[in-house]
Amino acid sequence: MNVSWAELTAVVGGSASPAMPETSFDAETTQLAARAQAGDREAFSALVDLHHRAARRVAVAALVNPSDADEAVQDACLTAWRRIDRLDDPAAFRAWLMRITWRKALDRRRSVTAWLRRLRQPSEPDQTPLIETVQATNASPADAFLTDERDRIVAQLIRSLPPRLRDPFLLAASGEHRYEDIAALLGLPLGTVKWRMAEARRVLREKLIRLGFGERS
Q1: How far apart are CA 146 and CA 34, in angstroms?
Q2: Per-residue pLDDT tens digits for 124-138
Q3: Taking CA atoms, which of 68, 89, 119, 211 is between 20 and 30 Å from 44?
Q4: Which phi and psi angles does 198 have, rounded to 5°?
């Protein structure tokens, strides 16, 4: 997952539109979950195959680093298998697995310093950082310094958000999750997620303006 400066500022400005394709809890998921609850390991394996990509996106949104995200997903899947008997509605398996994955990812989120450092580094070889620092080849040393300074400030501003604002903001900024998905993931009412997104935008926008990185409306 890579979010550029333009994408981040679009989310701050409210123009970003999280566009993860809607995936309903179809008959296959319901049938496989019911079989898994009866002890069918192959059915559970098929469920993991169906929803692994979505779970990984959730983990990456929290952790940035793909290796940490993969470990969080693995932990989540093991936990889901051990607790499959606690799933009240087989049709709700996907949302249930995403919530477990999110909690596991948060458990793995290390110190704020380490998390911020990952924001500034490529998540995989040949990829740009989450906070993009690409500069024009003809940029002057002064321009390069300003770009680095801007990216450092943006990373700090995101870090400074309280978790209740930061987590939905990062999920939305990834472009992978609709507000409905974020609400289900965080166990919050949809209206609360929308309010927190609006508040995160307001706080970041005001701070960017005060620091000279935006325009007053």
Answers
A1: 56
A2: 555 554 444 334 444
A3: 68
A4: -65, -40
Contact 64, 118 (CB under 8 A): yes
Q: Is residue 216 part of a domain?
A: no
What would the two tokens of residue 40 be? Answer: 């069918």
Of residues 140, 77, 67, 153, the one with CA closest to residue 110: 67
What does the longest C-alpha to C-alpha distance in the chain come to? 65
Q: What residues contact residue 136 under an 8 Å CB cut-off, 6+ apart?
A: 143
Helices within the chain (DSSP H only): 5-13, 27-37, 41-63, 66-82, 93-108, 112-119, 141-160, 163-173, 179-186, 190-210
Place of tokens 């490529």: 122
Residue 57 contacts residue 177 (beta carbons within 8 Å): yes
Residue 114's CATH number = 1.10.1740.10
pLDDT of amino acid 205? 83
Q: Give the pair of three-digit tokens for residue 121.
A: 């580094």
201-215: per-residue pLDDT in tens? 888 888 878 877 655
Closest CA to 170 of 150, 200, 148: 200
Buried b (16+ CB within 10 A) or exposed e, 17-52: ebebeeeeeeeebeebbebbbeebeebbebbbebbe
Whether the full predicted model's pTM is greater than 0.70, yes or no, is no
Would you say residue 21 lies in a domain? yes
**217 located within any domain:** no
- Match 């979010």 to its residue by tokens: 3
Higher pLDDT, 24 or 210: 210
